[in-house]
Amino acid sequence: MKRLLFMGFGGLLLLLAFTGLNALSVLTRIQARNESIRKDYFNRDRILEQLRSDIYLSGTYVRDFLLERDPSLADAHRKELDDARLRIDANVSTYEGILRGEERLPFQRFTKELKAYFNSLRPALEWDATQRQALGYSFMKDSLLPRRMVIVQLADRISGVNQTQMDAGDKQVAILFAEFRRSLIVLLVLTLIGGTLLAGGSIYRILRLERESAQRFDEVEQARGALRHLSTRLIEVQESERRSLSRELHDEVGQSLSALLLGLGNVAAILPPETGGDARGQLNDLRGLAERTVAVVRDMSLLLRPSMLDDLGLIPAVQWQAREVSRTKNIAVHVQADALPEDIPDEYKTCTYRIVQEALHNVIRHAKAKSVRIHLGPHGNNLLLTIQDDGQGFIPEREKGVGLLGMEERVKHLHGSFHVDSSRGVGTLVRVELPLSKVDATVLT
Amino acid sequence: MTTVRIVLADDHTIMRHGLRLVLERQPDFAVVGEANNGREAIDIVVRENPDVAVIDIAMPLLNGIEAAKRIAEERVKTAVVILSMHSDESYILKALRAGARGYLLKDSAEIDLIQAIRAVSAGKAFFSPAVSSVLADDYLRQIQQQGVEDPYELLTARERELLQLIVELKSTKDIAGLLGISPRTIDTHRGNLMQKLNVHSIPELILYAMRKRLIS
């Protein structure tokens, strides 16, 4: 399709170029032709006109010669006649060179008559003054003038042929023009058809490409939606896994270990007084081991998901987390919490808690902060959480890690807003707002 | 020698059994009932009216906190000791608000149980030393990290005396006798000292006293 379009556009351009060049050359040709026809005509006409006038003049010179009594003046007239004859001969030979088919016959008769005319003059030119006086008049009237008339008429006929020829040339030019017009029309129609087809093809192709790209965009959107859904689902699954693991560790393993500790204590208490130090030492070692294991299990359980979150609510869990960080990392974490509605859904509590946890984690790892202030409370219909540290800060546009993206993802899933405000040297503020008014609708979907 | 009558409530039989063994070594202790869940615990306490009820914080049907609350509402003389695996102060405050007088960590139960029962049956409060020391450490560090003044310094000598007696769970009448002042004056002093310490209830006051190591 693409190649076809390229070829089509190329062909159309070639056609247009050809039409233009063709038109130019034809027009030039016609113009040249027209000019040559006219030049030819005027050239012939001029020669014929000279012939005619010289022939007239020749008659006049003969008459003057015949009527002249003075011999010297008569000679001068004869001389003029000879000059005219020379001019006539020159023009005749010139015209012979450019003679055309239709003129040939009248021109042959013309030259024959011309020869006869000049031959008829020859005896009279030898006459002396008395002969001229006696015969001159009748010679003029009976021989010279009629002959001259015939020749001039013949010249007129050649002129007529010349005129006809020019008319024929004009007609030819007109035919050429008509042909040119026809071919121009054909070419234009072809160009128009080609252009229309090409435009149609192009539009069809553009529409198809547009449709395809829209389809692809939809597919990408769908995939993105599926991915988002998957990531949400992953978070949910992870959270529920953590919760059940934490519970299992705490309730089952922890309780059993506590019972074990208690049992070991009881065993120690009921040992007979004479029991050796070895047995008591063993027992103490076991108790130590059990105690350490209880502590490990409790820490693991809290790390997975603090029991306060489910037992006591969001604020106690956040306060506990803050105390833990204060205790173990020597960062003063201050929590200011305003009373929240009792019925905050689990998802929202978990999301808020995890953000606090992740933010504190970031503070510990990157911020070099001395203190952190966490504020948690209702804000209009929303739950507002801010976490502000006094650490070294960072440039969020450039150094946004997976942790921040994860927080943002969690918040977006609950239709909340997430902002990180930080720059070098002024600490970091994480601000999260979760819409509590939409809570019911969100939980149902 | 009067016998201390005790009810045990824990959904773990081995735990309950172990506790009973510990208690039975004391000649003046008698375990008068054992419960498997919160509801049973209330029934037995109401029926037996024991001196002390040792109640696990996490039990099916009705958790230990709710059970303690209901027992307090029954107006029995029973002192409740909450048995828990959590050492965080949020749980302690919750237990105190529910009316518990003792808070015992399970992993130190074998060592502290006797002492706890003796304390609460004598009308005092008792908290596992591990819990108290965590609270005290946290408080000290908080004061240091945040560089704030300890509000204890703001209290008058009389208020400090009063605080000590309140957190030892003495009644207003006893305190009036001990200090030689009227119950009305005691109310005024108590209001002042709670304001100075920025606490709003007796359980919070007790928690504060633990942080200050005023009680163990």
| Cα-atom radius of gyration of chain A | 62 Å
| SS content category of chain A | alpha+beta
Number of strands of chain B: 6
Largest interface: A-B, 34 and 27 residues
Beta content of chain A: 5-15%
Percent of residues in beta strands of chain B: 5-15%
How would the global form of chain B be characterised?
globular
Number of domains of chain A: 2
**Looking at the structure, what is the overall shape of chain A?**
rod-shaped
Radius of gyration of chain B: 18 Å
CATH hierarchy class name of the largest domain in chain A: Mainly Alpha
Short description:
Chain A is of the alpha+beta class and 445 residues long. Helices cover 79% and strands 8% of the residues of chain A. Chain B has a 6-stranded parallel β-sheet with strand order 2-1-3-4-5-6, with helices on both faces.
Index terms:
heterodimer; A: 445 residues; alpha+beta; Four Helix Bundle (Hemerythrin (Met), subunit A); Heat Shock Protein 90; 2 domains; 5-stranded mixed sheet; 11 helices; B: 216 residues; alpha/beta; Rossmann fold; Arc Repressor Mutant, subunit A; 6-stranded parallel sheet; 10 helices; 6 strands
What can you see in these coordinates?
The complex is a heterodimer of chains A (445) and B (216). With 445 residues, chain A is of the alpha+beta class. Chain A folds into two domains: 2-203, Four Helix Bundle (Hemerythrin (Met), subunit A), CATH 1.20.120; 309-445, 2-Layer Sandwich (Heat Shock Protein 90). In chain A, 79% of the residues lie in helices and 8% in strands. Chain A is built from eleven helices and five strands. Chain A has helices spanning 2-67, 71-97, 101-125, 129-270, 277-304, 307-311, 314-329, 346-367, 396-399, 402-413, 439-444, and strands at 332-337, 371-379, 382-389, 417-422, 428-435. Chain A has a five-stranded mixed sheet, covered by helices on one side. In chain A, α1 (2-67) packs antiparallel against α2 (71-97), α2 (71-97) packs antiparallel against α3 (101-125) and α7 packs parallel to α8. The longest helix of chain A is centred in the middle third of the chain and has 142 residues, at 129-270. The radius of gyration of chain A is 62 Å and the shape is rod-shaped. The model of chain A is unreliable at 439-445 (pLDDT under 50). With 216 residues, chain B is α/β, with parallel strands linked by helices. Chain B folds into two domains: 4-131, Response regulator (Rossmann fold), CATH 3.40.50; 149-211, Winged helix-like DNA-binding domain superfamily/Winged helix DNA-binding domain (Arc Repressor Mutant, subunit A, Orthogonal Bundle). Helix content of chain B is 54%, strand content 14%. In chain B, strands 2-1-3-4-5-6 form a six-stranded parallel sheet, sandwiched between helices. In chain B, α3 (64-73) links the parallel β3 (52-56) and β4 (79-84). In chain B, α1 crosses α5 (109-121). The longest helix of chain B is centred in the middle third of the chain and has 18 residues, at 129-146. Chain B is globular, with a radius of gyration of 18 Å. In chain B, 44% of the residues are buried. The model of chain B has no long low-confidence stretch (mean pLDDT 88). The chains are: A alpha+beta (445), B alpha/beta (216). The A-B interface holds A 250-251, 254-259, 261-266, 269, 291, 294-295, 298, 307-308, 311-312, 316, 319-320, 323, 326-327, 330-332, 334, 371 and B 12, 14-15, 18-19, 21-22, 25, 58, 85-86, 88-91, 94, 106-107, 109-111, 137-138, 141-142, 145-146.
